[in-house]
Amino acid sequence: MSGPGKVSHKNRHEPMNTLSNAPTTGHGADEPDEVEISLYESRKKIQPRAVSGTFANWRWALVWLTQILFYGLPWLNWNGRQAVLFDLLSRRFYLGGLVLYPQDFIYLTGLLVMSALSLFLFTAVAGRLWCGYACPQTVYTEIFMWIERKIEGDRAARIRLDNAPLSAGKFARRAGKHGAWILFALWTGFTFVGYFTPIRALGMEVLAGALGPWQTFWIFFYSFATYGFAGIMREQVCKYMCPYARFQSAMFDKDTLIVTYDTARGEPRGSRGKKVDPKEKGLGACVDCTLCVQVCPTGIDIRKGLQYECIGCGACADVCDEVMDKFGYERGLVKYSTENAMTGGWSKAQIIRRALRPRVLVYAAVLATIAVAVGVSLYLRVPMKVDVIRDRGALARMVEFGRIENVYRLQVMNATETEQQVHLTVEGLEGITLASEPQVSVLPTEVRTLAVRVQVPPDIDSGSHPILFRLQSQNDPAIHLEEKTTFLVPR
């Protein structure tokens, strides 16, 4: 090894590919020159040019929408508490008026399934829409690049700064940029933790310097991830770390909308003046300005065809339309289109009609079915739960008048934010009675454990008998629960 990522080859008899002009046969052959083979390609820093246009406006609209939701939701109140809070310590999850418990995990499963199906649907219709417009990596990279442009200038100024020797001015600009990035990343980490710890209390703890170890860890961990991914690594995350870039082609077909370069119209490319007729020079519409490459956040040339690095953001389409306008050419040299549309010269109406193909309709139908099922389940959900656990310490015992008694532990979960007066009854055997207090009070969002004694007459046959607990809320007649268990009568 002559250095990291290098292989040195000096012995021509070793089974290794080399490049050499020296002879390779015969005992008298000269030794070949040393050849170094690079095992990796060093990263070429990408400085994207700022762009405006239809797709850029959509991208920034989603940046604003997602970040207003992310940074704003923890500060909203609902019934005197945080509107959205995943309280892991108390094992309660608040979503507006909903109070969910770990037993409601099925709803999270439904949400994850809907997210996956939505990704499949959007990808089949229009490629990497999620990546180009709403993925956190894209959103935060866009924000970090905006900060960079405000402090270091446009693309040309940033490139000059990169190539300039270290000076006080360069150090100040770089320090200002990284300082702004770090502050934004810390605010992002603080907000993230604010979804799991009441954010107002968390803010007071930060100001008082009284953060707990886990809160401190997660704030700095999420801040470091945001700073590293959006500020330093950027396109490297999309190209090498994100699995979606690798399997996206499995969800594409010839009718999927992708960012496409119209080769038939653009080639042969070449520079020319605005007043030059390209047909007289035998040129296509592409003026070979390379602006489509300069605005690309992953540094690809869309004119070489679709590549897995393309996140479908449409920046190249926006800048190409600007160039076409300057030269007086028709827009759409780079555009969203499909492979079949480019081959067959389809109109927009034909593309839209073809978008409603069986594959897309199946995805949409399954997604709608699951969404309706989850919605109906949430609407019909009873906001109280009960679990019955038999007291293992005394399975059955004889009490006064020879009656047989079983003891149970009832865990009652009140998923409402009002106190519930609950009336408890038991049935299933002749003469069965509840020997403990039938009326219980459960505080808002409380999980209360009750010791319940159930007795039957002594003439009940021995063995295991099914019984049923009924719980009825006195506050809301619609809240009633039933839970089955067994009553044991010893021999």
From TrEMBL:
This protein's superkingdom? Bacteria
Q: Which InterPro entries match?
A: 4Fe4S_Fe-S-bd, 4Fe4S_Fe_S_CS, Cyt_c_oxidase_cbb3_FixG, Electron_Trans/Redox, FixG_C, Helical_ferredxn, Ig-like_fold
Cite the residue spans of the region called Disordered. Answer: 1-30
UniProt-listed SUPFAM superfamilies = 4Fe-4S ferredoxins
Q: Which UniProt keywords apply?
A: 4Fe-4S, Electron transport, Iron, Iron-sulfur, Membrane, Metal-binding, Transmembrane, Transmembrane helix, Transport
Membrane-crossing ranges are: 58-76, 105-126, 180-197, 217-233, 360-380
Q: Where is the 4Fe-4S ferredoxin-type domain?
A: 272-305
Tell me what this protein is called. Answer: Ferredoxin
Q: What is the lineage of its organism?
A: Bacteria, Pseudomonadati, Pseudomonadota, Betaproteobacteria, Burkholderiales
